Amino acid sequence: MVLDPAGYKWSSYPTNALGVKSTLCCAHRVYLSLGKTETERMKAYRALFETEISQTLIGNIQYCSKKELVLGNNKFKQQIENLTGIALKNERLGRPPQNEG
């Protein structure tokens, strides 16, 4: 995708992290909870992007997106099932088992 989240044209990052005004974005309640002032919220939002995501996690996200799977622990998956009323596919992530024989 992009190395800097501000470089992705469909991202709300410039608005939420840098204060760029937009007629397309409005502040979400979760974003508003990041701080009492706009400066505090922008700083907290930028901090969310400081941790590098491992290649393994990126691969899992891509795999689950393509297969339309929920990515998360069992508790999270159960919450999604309860909210949606849809039984989730249970596929194990990682390398497929090697054929024995």
Topology of this protein?
Blueprint: H1 13-18, H2 29-32, H3 38-47, H4 55-67, H5 74-84
Structure description:
The protein is mainly α and 101 residues long. It folds into 2 domains: 5-47, no CATH class; 55-84, no CATH class. 44% of the residues lie in helices and 0% in strands. The protein has 5 helices and no strands. The longest helix has 13 residues, at 55-67. The termini are far apart. The mean pLDDT is 88.
Report how far apart the termini are: 40 Å
Total beta strands = 0
Please provide the ordered H/E string of secondary-structure elements.
HHHHH
The coarse overall form would be globular
Q: Assess the beta-strand content as a share of residues.
A: under 5%
Please give a quick description of this structure.
The protein is mostly helical and 101 residues long.
Highlighted features:
101 residues, 5 helices, 44% helix, single chain, mainly alpha
